[in-house]
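User: Some background: our group keeps a shared notebook of sequences we're curious about, and every so often someone picks one and asks for a predicted structure to add to the entry. Today it's my turn. The entry only has the sequence so far, pasted here. Could you supply the structure so I can complete it?
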Amino acid sequence: MKIIITGSGKVGFTLAEQLVRESHDVTIVDLKEAALRRAADMLDIMAVQGNGVSANVLREAGADSADLVVATTNSDEVNMVCSLVAKNLGAKYTIARIRNPEYNSTLAELRKDLKIDMVINPERATALEISRLLRFPSAANIESFCRGRVELIGFRLLEEDFLVNRPLHALSDQVKQLSLLFCAVERPGGEVVIPNGSFVPQAGDKLYLIGRPSSLDQFFRLLGRYAQKVHHVFILGGGKISVYLARILEKMGMKLKIVELDEAQCRLISEKFPKSMVIHGDGSDQELLESERFSASDAFVALTDRDEDNLILSLYAMQKGVQKVVTKSNRQNYAGIAQTIGLDSVISPKLITAAQILQVVRGMQNSQGSVMNTLYRIADGSAEAMEFTASANTRHLGVPLKDLQLRKGILIAVLARGGDIIIPEGSSSIREGDSVI
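Assistant: Of course. Here's the predicted structure to add to the notebook entry:
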């Protein structure tokens, strides 16, 4: 597919990197020569210097024949106008990054008036992911399928867990009756395995488990890892993610303390969320954290603009015994370091955004009549969890799964059929209308 990306920042570069890996024809448009040179040298793509709202610049980039134009500059307004100009030039599909909470209430009108096919908001998507983690503190990460009826949870195995050193087929009937599936394992060295019944989990493995939320809840109770509900959350940083997150968590009945260095932003947050306590101060100041009794909180969420501060302060919170710690880090190498030292819930807004767009690209590419609904990168991008809807044109309908010639490392994990959630066996088959994970 021919894809144009305006803006070569964190999101634009990460997206281009993933699209090039999937052999798409990618062109990046940016005003900054240094950013374009870096992208062109590292990714071997076309680069056009100029303003993304200029018809001439977009025409030079090939917007008139583009399958997709993605506007990811730092300005919401530039992204909106870029989408409109690209659509008028003949681009088939446009995606605009719109981050300002002020635009939230009028998004439907903006999309219609400015011919935007899809709006992405990294900060809101990140806030939603954090809220899921706080709802289920035992998990290192949670992904949702079938409109929330199925969840995929990643968690780290401890030495004392009954799963350790036992093949999966030897698990007790109590576990087997829960209709769950172990669908992926990330080993400490970074190796990712799609397990079968003979797989033997080890302490330190990160297991990915899929099933109904209620079944997952029961499993963690059996494992002795069931954590009490989060009531008090301590948030470092008062940026856009924190604003979206505070709105979600207040509706969930949680009590919040938000620390922000900028006084004007503190006042703004305080006016929007009168039920929350907003503290003007430096979140990296140990005395401030201790005086505000941060270690008494059920959860600690580090959302400052500096990945380094987020990681160090999250590690400090973990050492102080905070039950649930969530860390924002956009740098992939930092995420690996964080997980090595025990910080499992590390989230990256740029990767969340890139995955959303990649889902659209694959859906547009699909020529077999199946529609991709959801796509998640798991195990640091080494594996993917994908949901699609089987249509009348999908091949191999009604064929038992044991007779399908699937590539090694591919697992049909769940079939959602009407109100039923099916963990499939070899004799199961895909039917028209099924949601397949």
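Suggested note for the entry: Residues 349-365 form the longest helix (17 residues). The longest strand covers residues 371-378.
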